[in-house]
Amino acid sequence: MEQNFPFQSSPLPYSYVALMPHCDANTLYYHHDKYYAESVYELNRLVVRHRLTDRTLSQLVTEDYNLPAAQLARLKSAAGAVYNHQLYFDGISCKAGQPPFNRLTDAITSTYGSMARFQQLLTQAAESIIGSGWVWLVAEGDRGIHISTTINNEVVPLSSVTPLLVMDMWEHAYLTLDHFNKPTYVDTWFSLIDWTRANQRYLDALSNTAAG
């Protein structure tokens, strides 16, 4: 996830048709090669303008800078869009299926009672967002895991939590062909989660907590 300037679009881990019938190629192309790629271009332009080329992507997301409010908001939005989309695309598998048993799914079941209840809470979180935003599953040190939401392109506080999963709730992201149906979109996204990658992020978070 970490990057240094000049920032580059991460390649799509699967083909444009790999998510059919859940997502058509045009929607995926627009989302990755247009919206996400344009966010990368905008971020590079802004960090050059504000002389922040020595900052990493995580620093641009988390640090505060002495800039006029409107310019700071544009910088944070671009950095958040790049960070969030990289995690989003990286977290999707082209093979739909049921969640496997691993450390993360065990923690989810222990925390929420069942995977079905967890999915229900994700749907409620998605429907609670007014406008655009993101739904997250994060690990918070020894405090376990929890669901969080952010609006627009905001990022969860990386200094205190580790993102495990993120779901894009901007309208351009809706994977399902049943456009703008949030519950159906959540169901589709849930079936495409790359649980192996998510579990590794969880194991890394646990390891970092133990080391600290």
What is the CA-atom radius of gyration, in angstroms?
A: 17 Å
Distance between the termini: 21 Å
> What's the total count of β strands?
3
Assembly type of the chains comes to single chain
Q: Which descriptor suits the 3D outline?
A: globular
The total count of helices amounts to 7
Description:
This protein has helices spanning 25-49, 57-62, 69-90, 103-112, 115-128, 182-191, 195-211, and strands at residues 133-139, 145-151, 162-168. The longest helix is centred in the N-terminal third of the chain and has 25 residues, at 25-49. With 212 residues, the chain is mainly alpha-helical. The protein starts with 24 loop residues before the first helix and ends with a helix. Helices cover 49% and strands 10% of the residues. A 3-stranded antiparallel beta sheet has the order 2-1-3. It is globular.
Features:
212 residues; mainly alpha; 3-stranded antiparallel β-sheet; 7 helices; 10% strand
Short description:
49% of the residues lie in helices and 10% in strands. It has 212 residues and is mainly α.
List the topology elements:
Layout lengths: L24 H25 L7 H6 L6 H22 L12 H10 L2 H14 L4 E7 L5 E7 L10 E7 L13 H10 L3 H17 L1
Helix pairs in contact: 1-3, 5-6
